[in-house]
Amino acid sequence: xxxxxxxxxxxxxxxxxxxxxxxxxxxxxxxxxxxxxxxxxxxxxxxxxxxxxxxxxxxxxxxxxxxxxxxxxxxxxxxxxxxxxxxxxxxxxxxxxxxxxxxxxxxxxxxxxxxxxxxxxxxxxxxxxxxxxxxxxxxxxxxxxxxxxxxxxxxxxxxxxxxxxxxxxxxxxxxxxxxxxxxxxxxxxxxxxxxxxxxxxxxxxxxxxxxxxxxxxxxxxxxxxxxxxxxxxxxxxxxxxxxxxxxxxxxxxxxxxxxxxxxxxxxxxx
Length: 270
Hints:
This protein has helices at 3-9, 114-120, 124-135, 139-152, 154-167, 172-180, 187-197, 209-220, 226-266, and strands spanning 15-16, 26-31, 36-52, 55-66, 73-81, 84-85, 94-95, 98-105. The protein is of the alpha+beta class and 270 residues long.
């Protein structure tokens, strides 16, 4: 993880291995007033000490503001960890190899986008719990909730892929083979079989969208640490949201386009 990625998206209380961390001069982040992703510039930096009883905490803070409107602000509080003497300094210099985010204002938004809520239906609550778990650093929990959504929506995903396949003029035989995957008894087998039957036209760059969801949600639940699962979740999140939001829209748009063209052709307008 780079210093910019740490500021932008590291979950609270997770130790990240970054040697001699320094907050970057700028980050990229969504600005709500600007309604788009903008560059945020660093302003104040603070080094401080807090203590309670025998407990002492050396902390640092970095404040950022949207470089476009200056109306949005972000403050990240962090501590530097794993201090050791610099070789050859004879006790005069020390360095650190890790950093942990211990506070952030405002906190990360964990609301599920409204359009995605409509697509996920009753499983939207599982996805929100996945986001909450991820932001708290509980990567294994985040992957478990994400897999739960994928499992429960597998039949719907297969239906969407079948509809899309028809708009790409896949043979009805191939479409039926894809739909027959829903008759498998386990979610795992359904998604595994369906992913193997996705037509080539629906594999951008040769990548299978259902296969990616199946493979990576499985990897995250077997033998990975919380930190590793957070990384997998972050990598998979955009693909997950694309599949559940954009593939539905794409199927509807292509059906509507085909209907308009066929209606126009039937009316004699060539």
